[in-house]
Structure formats: structure tokens, C-alpha cells
Amino acid sequence: MSERTHTSRVQGSGAAGSGLVDVHRRPATWTGLWYVLPFLAFYLLFLVWPAIVGLGYTFTDRSLAGGPVSFIGLDNWNETFTDRALYESLWNTLVFTVLSVPVMVLLALGLALLTDHARRLGWFLRFSFFAPFVLPVAVMALMWEWMYNPSLGLFNGILGRLGFEGSEWLFSENTAMASVVIATAWWQVGFNYLLYLAAMQSIPKDVYEAAAIDGAGAWQRIGRITLPLLFRTTVLITILQLIGSLRVFEQIYLMTGGGPNFATRTVIQYIYDSGFVGLRIGLASSMAYVFMVLIIIASVAQFRLFSRKEA
Questions:
Q1: What is the sign of the dihedral through the CA atoms of 39, 44, 45 and 48?
Q2: Residue 86 three-state SS
Q3: Class of domain 84-310
Q4: Can you give the three-state secondary structure of 4-38, one letter per residue?
């Protein structure tokens, strides 16, 4: 009798048969909210609140050197949009992005295809291609600075043995950006490679077997089965790589310092120089917000472009 006071069940009948239906359902609770609150608290404290405070700084002359803070209106924004050095650093960032994104996507795809077809060496290839990704940026920068060294570096040593003249690599305006792109590709391609490899291994093998029976060769199977089924993965990797390339800072700061002659100084480094070297936090904040809007616009535009292609 006590069970009937908590739960009542009625027997339903019809053409499809009969069964027991729970009439008294348990009311919704807020239990799940307690699991979300820790993340929500950190999100609000370390992301939303600093973003609001930083937006307020853009309207002041706040400095890291201290002193009184006064409201200056849109002066920081006006200086941001008229700063020629900012446009030069934006151009350098664009050059790095244009050079790095295709390389990082196509190279990762090629390495994943190689690993997927070389079954016996699969474990060795996975380790070799992904291992550089776990290196700290400082270690990577030191390794490539040594290899790029004009007098003692590995690359110039190999070129000298082959009878060619060495290059200045990181010390020449013509080669510095390309040199950083090569080092970045070696360091970061492992993540994109892993995403591609996981997507390839999720493709049913029956599809390839059916195509082989129909007479499709290896390249035909790649072009007509693998690549179309990897379209969504390619969209994800391209968007992530675009955002990552636009936000480049650490390896360039460590390897070239933005030189030579500011040829590799990117937007993030210029914002850093304005805020933490020039001590102008208000100006740096306005630059950061402008750059954030540009990244959002570029990401949305790329996503919409891929969506149209998929449709």
C-alpha cells in the first residue's frame, strides 16, 4: 500500500498491446547546476570579468608605472586606428598566417595518410610525428636557433658540404618569417595530424573494400572516399589553425624578438610591447579588442565559406 502512495501506475491497452505507464514523474531539480558552478565561477572570474575591466581600461590613461588614472574618452581608440606600426605588425601576422595555415593543414593530412597506409610502422610514425608537439616552446626555439645559426648551424653546415652558400635565416628580413614558419610547422603539426588520423581510422573499412572490388585504385579511393569524408575535420583543423596562427607570439618572440628591423613583429607582440614595455595598458587594451574582433570576423567568414561548400 505504501508504494501506491508514492507511485501510481495504470495499465494501458490498445491495438499495440498493453503496458505500465508511470503517471507520477519526479520533478526537475537543480542538482546539475552544482556540477557547473565551479567552472562557471572560474569562467566569470578569469575571463568575463577581466574582459569587462580591460574594456574599461581602453577609455583611460592607465599605466603600469602607476599614478593617477583619468578618463580620456576615445583617445586610445583613435591612436589605435592611426598607428602605422600596428598596421605593419598586422601585415606580418597576415603573412605568417598565409604561409603557415596551408602548410600545417596539408602536411598534417599527408602525414596522416602515410601513417594510415603504413600499418607496420604505424606506432613509430605516430610517435615521431606527434612527439614535437609536447615540447615546450622554449626548448623548440633553442633547438631551431641552433640549427639556424649562420656559422655553427646544422642547415648552413649541410649547405656548405653540398657546395652552396649559407643563409642568415633568422637574421635576414627575406628569410626570417619563412624560417619561423618552418620551425612552427615542425612543432605544431602533430596536433592536426592526430585529428586527421583519428578521423581516418573512423571511416568504415567496408567502404574501401567495396571501392576496391569496383576497381578503384589507391589514389581514387583517397580522392573520392577519404578526402570527402574528411571535409568536416578539415574545416575544424583549418579554423583552429587560422586562430592559432593569428595569435602567434611565443616562438617569434623567442627566436627573432620581432626582428630583424621588425620584419617578424606580430600584433600580439606589438600589444605586449605597448602594454608591458611602454607601460600603456589603456592603449594596449584597445589594440587587443580591435584584434579580437578581427579574429572573430575571420573565423566566422571562414566557417561560412566552408558551410557553403559543404552545402
A1: positive
A2: helix
A3: mainly alpha
A4: HHHCCEEEEEECCEEEEEECCCCCCCCHHHHHHHH
- The pTM of the full predicted model, rounded to 2 decimals, is 0.84
More confident of the two residues 83 and 307: 83
Residues paired with 60 in a beta bridge:
71
DSSP type of residue 174: T
How many Å apart are CA 189 and CA 104, to the nearest integer?
A: 6
Rg (CA), the chain: 28
Q: Are 238 and 290 in contact (CB under 8 A)?
A: no
> Mind listing the pLDDT tens digit for each residue in 209-251?
898 888 888 888 889 899 999 999 999 999 999 999 999 999 9
What is d(CA 54, CA 289) in angstroms, rounded to the nearest whole number?
9
Distance CA 156, CA 162 (A): 10
Domain positions in the chain: 84-310
How is residue 166 annotated by DSSP?
Answer: P
Q: What is the pLDDT of residue 28?
A: 59
**Cα distances (Å, whole numbers) of residue 31 to 6, 38, 40, 306:** 21, 13, 15, 39
CA distance 271 to 265: 10
Q: Residue 14 forms beta bridges with which residues?
A: 17
DSSP, res 58: T
- Report residue 71 as a C-alpha cell: 578618463
**What residues have CB less than 8 Å from 85, skipping those under 6 apart?**
262, 270
Amino acid at 270: Y
By C-alpha distance, which of 198, 188, 204, 189 is closest to 233?
Answer: 198
As separate numbers, helices (DSSP H) first and strands (DSSP E) second, the chain gives 16, 2
Nearest residue to 288 via CA among 44, 76, 67, 68: 76
